[in-house]
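Notebook p. 47: complex prediction with 4'-deoxy-4'-aminopyridoxal-5'-phosphate.
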Amino acid sequence: ASYYNEHTVLWLDGKILKAADTKTDLYGQSLHYGYSVFEGIRSYRTAAGKTKIFKAIEHFDRLQRSATTLNMPYRYTTEELIKASYDVLESNNLQDAYIRPVVYGPANMSFNPNTESFTVIQTWEMAPFLGEKLLRVMTSSFQRPNPKGFKIEAKAAGHYVNSIMASHEAKGKGFDEALLTDMNGFIAEGPGANMFFEKAGRLHTPATGNILPGITRATVLELAEDLGIPVEQGQYTPADLKQADAAFFCGTAAEVIGWHSIDDYTFPISWKDTQSRKIQQAYKDLVIEKQPKLETI
Ligand code: PMP
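Predicted complex, structure tokens below:
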């Protein structure tokens, strides 16, 4: 993948700089120990042709919570970072894009806290996806990190070694994606997305506690309410999932994407006939701020 070229700019602590000219410290605590926090955000070209960052406030508020939860100095307001993000998008001539802020530390080989931090915002083109492709998902042999060992509600870089291992395993076995359980064996989430399953017209999703409670997950809960689709949050086992009618992942990058199967179980209801598909369509309309069609007489 090409994330940048010689023209690409990024935002680094108040300055718009050429990505190819910037550097990072090879003695950094973040590089050596995975001690940094980040966000994954999308912007869309709206139906009206404008560039809109979806749930910008929610994402930058979470970035701040992630940093402060991990005792990192945090230097900017949500408002400042939203403005910076729009500046980088515009400078790179991007509308449908992925926005990646990272807060990281200085040179420090000890485990002592830092008094300073750096903040970078990178962007790259990412088309909205929401295709009809359905994923073949595998129950991972990797479990999500134990919340007693990690601040799992923070998006910390180091946590993502777990996600990378689970993805490698699934793809190595010919699947599209992994589903991880929590430390008690209940279904939790994908490597970078939350999940819902559908049974008899109702949606079910793992309760918060042992998952990253995603912003897309919150949006799906709202859309389900608007559409009158009942949702339950609870503790579910891999066996429960194998009696479901349909399932999907949801996340900023993944958007809402349906599953074909979990392990050797194929979901019996055609995706187009599910309630989940209605959620997918509503999400797609929401991110581009599509107005409801005016009734013509
Ligand atoms: N779980 C994990 C582990 C993730 O990395 C992500 C992506 N941030 C999500 C869930 C979905 O979160 P969101 O909807 O906020 O992107």
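Notes: The chain has a mean pLDDT of 96. The chain has two domains: 9-125, 135-287.
Next step: compare against the earlier run before touching the bench.
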